[in-house]
Design brief:
195 residues, alpha+beta, 4 helices, 9 strands, binds zinc ion
């Protein structure tokens, strides 16, 4: 288990003596590049994100526009919050998609992105699909319902060409898309311009 919850850490910005309240994993090409610890002032961008979008916005309908590809960018823990956020960045732009979750969801996704000797849950899901001659075609976060749940359609296809669409949790869909090397698409109306 991570030390993040128990051990107070100072902000890692040189010369800063404030306590770090933000603990940020950086991702690139699906792997963790490193962890950053920041105080609220040096992590101002994340604090701003947490204020306006740490929770899922309710009732965003499916967009008429084409979904865009988003890639995992950061996962962020903020001290004193029970939820954390996975921040995905639009591949061809600067908008972000915020996926709130608990620590365990984030840890499960993180584990699935790492190469490991024994398969994690999402790798196992990918192995089962493959072994049954089924391929993952498409993963799209379509909309957000009134209770704040993202509707995520996961389209699979059997060898005979029969397609099925499943509604999975976006975090599972994200990890599975990574395992199967299929782009993770998001309805553009669910993206935030957070610059
Ligand atoms: Zn600082």
């Amino acid at each position: 288990m991570s030390e993040l919850w128990t051990a107070p850490t100072n902000c890692r910005v040189e010369g800063c003596t404030q306590q770090a309240v933000l603990h940020i994993n950086h991702y690139g090409d699906g792997v963790i590049l490193g962890t950053e610890h920041l105080c609220a002032s040096h992590g101002e961008w994340y604090m701003r994100l947490s204020e306006f979008s740490w929770h899922v916005p309710g009732g965003v309908p499916k967009s008429e526009k084409e979904p865009v590809q988003a890639v995992l960018f950061r996962s962020v823990f903020l001290d004193g919050q029970t939820t954390m956020a996975m921040i995905l960045k639009e591949k061809a732009g600067d908008r972000v998609f915020i996926l709130p979750g608990d620590y365990y969801t984030s840890a499960a996704v993180g584990q699935s992105l790492q190469e490991s000797e024994r398969p994690g849950s999402h790798t196992a899901m990918g192995m089962l699909l493959k072994a049954s001659g089924t391929s993952l075609l498409r993963v799209t976060v379509d909309s957000c319902d009134d209770s704040g749940h993202y509707r995520t359609s996961v389209v699979i296809q059997t060898e005979k060409g029969i397609q099925n669409t499943l509604d999975l949790r976006p975090s599972d869909a994200l990890a599975l898309s990574h395992v199967c090397r299929v782009p993770f698409l998001v309805n553009p109306s669910l993206l935030w311009d957070a610059r």
